[in-house]
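stuck on whats below:

***
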Amino acid sequence: MKKILITGSNGLLGQKLVYNLIKRSDVQVIATSFGANRLVKKEDYTYESLDITNKAEVERIFTKYKPNIVINTAAMTNVDACETKQDECWALNVTAVQNIIDAITLITSSSADGKENSPHLIHLSTDFIFDGKKGSEYLETDLPNPQSYYAKSKLESEKIVQKSKIKWAIARTIIIYGIVDNMSRTNIVLWAKDALTKGQKINVVDDQFRSPTLAEDLADGCILIADKGATGIYHLSGQETMSILELVYKVADYFKLDRSLITPSKSDTLNQAAKRPPFTGFIIDKAKRDLGYNPHSFMEGLEILDKQLKELNPSV
């Protein structure tokens, strides 16, 4: 039975991975995150509190469980906060990744099978490593040009992974949306739905384009990489690229909310600390071909999200 260790299991992707994998009888799941376990379901997997910025702690947990696969979803992803808290950003997004690689290397060197049984690291990265000036969707082979401290930290983590001697894959993705237990942070779909439901006026940029990614789809893509033992870089996102404004209009229309509350705006009017790339859709042909990755359309994703919300609160 393969042991899969997930970092950041309290987060959106982390929770989807745990809930997806515990349905299977061929894997043992070790969920790790900083602090208490925020998942409602506590059975059928092991939870360990883990500070991935603490090298000794990472080595202790990894040596204890000797995972076959590590899916690193943990990161500091608040792009503006990364500009103002650069040390914290670097510790979580770069130093922690080196800690994970070192722990995997330690397990491999102490294993009787050596490199043949080296744990497979699947590391999550982001569309923000690109500058968004290409004017069309990005391939895995396109050259990065990060525009923010967050993006620089994520690109550095990619370089560390690629330079390592371990078995690795990098899964890049784009704005993730979905429902999770005890959520500490929202995402763009839930933010828009919540604000419009309350009748609040919102400003939404029309000059940034993305491929929104359903969390379940991203989890499926990561698990496909794990099951196939795939290595290299994969772009895993939704299949449609649209402006953030169009995305929010679609949310309003699906939930029958008032479009007139939405005011189109430009990125430079928001006074955000971090610069965002204007256009970062992905070409996901490689993931489709190599992995059998098949993400839902955005409308299908909204249907799934709507169904989950109704299950959580039948009166809505």
